[in-house]
Amino acid sequence: MPAGHRRGRFTRRGRRARTSAQAIGLTVAGALVPGLGLLIGGRRKLGAAVLAISAGLLAIGVYVGLAQRDSVIALALSPTGLLVTTAAVVVLGAAWIWVVVSSHKLLRPISMSYTGRLTGALVVGVLCFAIAVPTTVTAQTVMAQRDLIGSVFKSQGSSRSATRPTVNAKDPWAHIPRLNILLLGGDDGHGRTGTRTDTVMVASIDTRTGNTALVSLSRNWMRMPFPASSPLHKVYPDGFWDPSLGNVEQPQYYLDAMYDTIPKKYPGILGQTDNEGADVVKLAASAALGLDVEYYMQVSLAGFQQIIDALGGITVNINYRVPIGGEYGIGPGANKPKKPSGYLEPGPNQKLNGHDALWFARGRYGLSDPSRQERQRCTIHALVNSADPATLVTKYQQIAAAGKEMLRTDVPQELLSALVQLGLKVKKANVTNINLNPDKNFPNGRNPNYAGMRAIITNALNPHSATGTPTRRPTTHKTTTKPATTPGTAQNLNDACAYHPTTGS
After folding, report:
1. Whole-number pLDDT of residue 503
2. Which of 20, 213, 265, 275 gives a 20 to 30 Å CA spacing to 321?
3. Average pLDDT over residues 39-48
4. What is the dihedral of CA 6, 7, 9, 13, to 10 degrees?
5. 3-state DSSP assignment of residue 173
């Protein structure tokens, strides 16, 4: 008798002898170990091939995940790579479903009762659904990442900037020992004309260690200087103010007004750029602080609230009552004066949603600018600490959608892989605030001592005075007295953001 007939008779005898319950159990096993069901069902060559492919893909995935982190990051930041990944996920999911259905057809008895057939169909349907759902979610998440990358981060060739450097593809940090990024909070809310950058900070990151120093700039600084080589220096040789008005408050010449005012008054003065306002502030911050600011990241306040909600909130210490809303009615494009609608009350480890986190960072009615700057730094600190892997995985689509709406930047796609790896260092490194000695250098905003501030920053960033990366201490409920900060020094944000309710605002 031919071998093919003997195998066919053996397979049929095996299927007749197998019960419906056994077939269903083997189908489930074949879904968990793709190829196993085909092997048992008699399709030995096909089953062996599927089993080998499954084992190979699993081994490759484990190896890449554990030993090729750089490659994974590069893939996650490449629009083309993400598109290929999406297609691969869909194909693998469809193939897995085919294996499950085919395995059950081979494994089920030739003669089955109605109940057995119905039960088998239900089990196969549940298995296919269990495969299809994560496949769909994974594909959607990968496409959300691709959409975010493509919408926010443009390549050097498809975007324009008057101030950013050219990326060194081989080693982006070869000539950048410290990466300086301008952080802007754009307030273009309801009832306000134009954009007011009422949050301006510079993050200076050691590209070797990830140690980061934050420098806050006051929104009411006048006479913001420009580099001598900039066309803006010719227009404002004495800084951004009007000398003819005298040494008085000039809100239309505050730092928070220049983003909107200068591009409208001198459009195209810096050349081709996708965001002239951000380039203006970059140049002014570079000259004022003595730092080469390479890139900017601008956050809209509405998007900030969305991303905090997507992360599930942030945890901060509130040391004094912080106003929700409130307007002085001063400055170009400002709303009418009004009182706060409420307050965030003091307390340790307060979990804030997006709305409350926004006002924790923004609230200034009846408070000083330095107190608000400190809360803004603590908000960034809490945001970095809250971005745990579990939250990022489970809520990534919401985070990506919010990020697409809230973020503008001149960071090019070519730098993203290196920047993400640097960000991983920052999360584990020391984050400090540089105290610019406001009592001495800017008791008011009319005539800040920029030379004095530059000297403080140079001293604080001196690598010879840098210490090792300290261990991050957990937040404590214990009430403490805020440690004294020596003017002109760097203060660890774990200390600055601790709970010390006796501190005034």
Report:
1. 53
2. 213
3. 92
4. 130
5. coil
Residue 7: CB atoms within 10 Å: 12
Averaged pLDDT for residues 135-143: 93
Q: How many residues does the chain have?
A: 505
Phi, psi of 49, deg, nearest 5: -65, -45
Task: Please calculate the CA angle 172-178-179 and round it to the nearest 5 degrees.
Answer: 60
3-state helix, strand, coil split of the chain in percent (to 5) is: 50, 15, 35
- The token pair at 319 is 């040391």
Question: Is the CB of residue 253 less than 8 Å from the CB of residue 242?
Answer: yes
Instruction: State both tokens at 153.
Output: 């981060």
**Structure-block tokens of residue 28:** 């489930």
Q: Is residue 497 a contact partner of residue 381, using CB atoms and an 8 Å limit?
A: yes
186 secondary structure, DSSP code: E
Q: Which of 432, 474, 479 is nearest to 202 (CA)?
A: 432
Task: Note whether 86 and 146 are within 8 A (CB).
Answer: yes
Q: Is 56 exposed, middle or buried (0-12, 13-18, 19+ CB in 10 A)?
A: exposed
CB burial class (10 A; 0-12, 13-18, 19+) of residue 304?
Answer: buried
The one-letter amino acid at 66: L
- Beta strand extents in 228-313 (DSSP E only): 295-300
d(CA 173, CA 170): 9
Cα 123 from Cα 26, distance rounded (Å): 11
The residues pairing with 185 across neighbouring beta strands, listed in sequence order, are 199, 299
Instruction: Tell me the CB-side half-sphere exposure of residue 67, using CA atoms within 13 A.
Output: 5
Hey, what are 149's tokens? 């990358």
pLDDT exceeds cutoff 70 at 333:
no
Torsion sign, CA atoms 35, 36, 41, 44 = positive
Q: What is the CA radius of gyration of the chain?
A: 30
Distance CA 329, CA 333 (A): 9
Residue 60: pLDDT band (50, 70, 90) is very high
Region at 16 (left for phi over 0; alpha for psi -120 to 50; beta for the rest): alpha
Burial (0-12, 13-18, 19+ Cβ within 10 Å), 16: exposed
| CA torsion angle 30 35 40 45 (round to 10) | 170
What does the block give as tokens for 466?
């840098």
> Which residue is listed with tokens 């009430």?
479
Prediction pTM value:
0.78
